[in-house]
Structure formats: C-alpha cells, structure tokens
Write a structure and sequence with these properties.
five-stranded mixed β-sheet, PDDEXK-like_dom_sf, two-stranded antiparallel ribbon, binds zinc ion, about 270 residues
C-alpha cells in the first residue's frame, strides 16, 4: 500500500508498517506491553479517547494550516450545554493561547517553516517503517516535530532501571527523532542526517515553550536503542513469538484472568 494522509493511521498501515509509537508500544521501558500492542494492531483494542490527544491534534492542525477545517470536523471541541454552549471548550481556548505563543516567536516560526506533515517510509533493521515529519526543510538541513506537553522540566520515574528521567528519554522522543532522521536519510540517499528539532509548547498558564535540537551522537544512541529491541518486536509482530502480557496496562487489566493466587508479600509497589 502507498501511504497518504488518509490511510497513514489506518489498521492496514499499522499492520504493514511499524511506526515509532507502535515500536515503543511493545517496550515496557516506555510503558508499552506486547499483548496490548498486538491487540491494538489487530484492531481488538482501542485506546480510550482522551482530550489530551485532541489538544495535540488541535495545535498540529494549526501548524499544518488546517485549523479551521479541523474545528469544523470536530464538534466535540465545542461546549454543547450551559452558558458557554457553542463556544470552544476551555482547554481548546487554551490551545489558542499556546498557538499564539508559538506564532509570536520568530525562531519557532523559522523552525516550523517548510513542508508540513511529510510522510516517508523505508526499510530499517529489516522492517518497513512509516514516519510523518511535522515540518520538513531539507534545504536548511533540519526537520522539526511539534509537541504539546504538560510541563517542560518534570522528572519521570523509570521503574525498569530505577532512575528519574527527563521527558525526552521518558517518552522515547530521542528514538523518534533518530528513526525520523535515519528514514529521511535512506529515502533521499544522502550521507548525512538532517538535524532533528523539537518545538515544545506547554499547557501551563501561561504556556512555556522551547526549541530542542538533537546532534549526531543522539541519533546514533537512539538508533542503538531501537537496534537492541527490534528483533524481539519483529518476532512478536510477525506472530513468530507469543506476546507477553504485562497484566498492568488497560488491555491486560480488562482481559485479565487470574492463573495463580499471590502471597500477600508478593504485592509490588511503585
Ligand atoms: Zn499489558
């Protein structure tokens, strides 16, 4: 299948291609679960719809230049009852504030310039990947990803290795930027990577914002982490290996059947 904006997030595309978020969905270090990831790919499980998702979409639609269309197609953005009926819900009014912060910073507009929502696919580590670059400027040697975050400086506990991490490592944004850079390099047959940038805007009042860039060392490290886990993910996705259940995620909790009872001292705490 040839990827386009209409089918990029479809089940068929998710079966045929792996994306960075699908890949992370298999890895417990990124809050993923093999069984949950497979249920999503097979269409047996849909993640509950959360507003945080819409807020990200709202700001992305602005970057793409399709915000008016997005608002038209998503009536759930508007309050339907009460005094504010017909007006944007309060969190989306705040999205307008976040957009204002971005739009009024010249360096942000420079980082986000170029071609928008560019889809690419290529084989990497023996599997077909799909990526979507929010803003793409090969002539300047950069691409940029736009993220909405709760806050910039929060620390996140990594239960696997027992350390606090920043949000980049915690959400695997370093992997995302590394894979995007490598796929773009492969597709265009260039020797050097474009430099990945992330434009971050926070949901705080007033919003904070920053531009973060990644260097070649970060790209190499990110690809190294993907390489370490990819064979297991390929085996599970292809059906060659049985997915392991984490028994903690939404999917596992909702399909759980107790196999053995626990001694009270076995209860884990996090
Ligand atoms: Zn699970």
């Amino acid at each position: 299948m040839k990827l386009n904006k209409d089918n990029y997030f479809s089940q068929e595309a998710n079966l045929q291609y792996i994306s960075v978020s699908q890949f992370k969905g298999f890895l417990s270090s990124y809050g993923g679960c093999e069984a949950g990831a497979m249920a999503k790919i097979n269409g047996e499980w849909e993640q509950a719809h959360i507003d945080a998702f819409d807020e990200g979409h709202y700001v992305h639609a602005w970057n793409e230049g399709t915000l008016d269309e997005f608002k038209e197609n998503n009536p759930q953005l508007y309050a339907s009852t009460g005094k504010t009926a017909g007006q944007l819900k309060v969190q989306f009014k705040h999205c307008d504030k976040m957009i204002e912060v971005l739009a009024s910073d010249p360096l942000v507009m420079k980082a986000l310039a170029g071609e928008k929502e560019v889809i690419m696919s290529a084989e990497l580590f023996g599997i077909e990947w799909k990526v979507m670059l929010d803003s793409y400027q090969p002539q300047t040697g950069i691409f940029a990803d736009l993220k909405t975050m709760k806050e910039m400086d929060g620390k996140f506990w990594n239960n696997e290795i027992g350390v606090y991490e920043n949000f980049i490592d915690h959400y695997g944004y370093n992997l995302q930027m590394a894979v995007y850079a490598e796929i773009e390099r492969i597709v265009h047959g260039r020797d050097e990577w474009l430099l990945p940038h992330m434009v971050i805007v926070t949901k705080q009042k007033p919003p904070d914002h920053d531009i973060i860039y990644f260097d070649y060392d970060a790209i190499e490290q990110g690809l190294h982490i993907v390489g370490k886990h990819i064979e297991r993910v390929k085996a599970v996705k292809s059906g060659a290996a049985e997915p392991v259940r984490c028994e903690k995620c939404d999917y596992c909790r909702s399909t759980k059947k107790i196999k053995t009872i626990k001694h009270f001292s076995e209860l884990k705490f996090y």
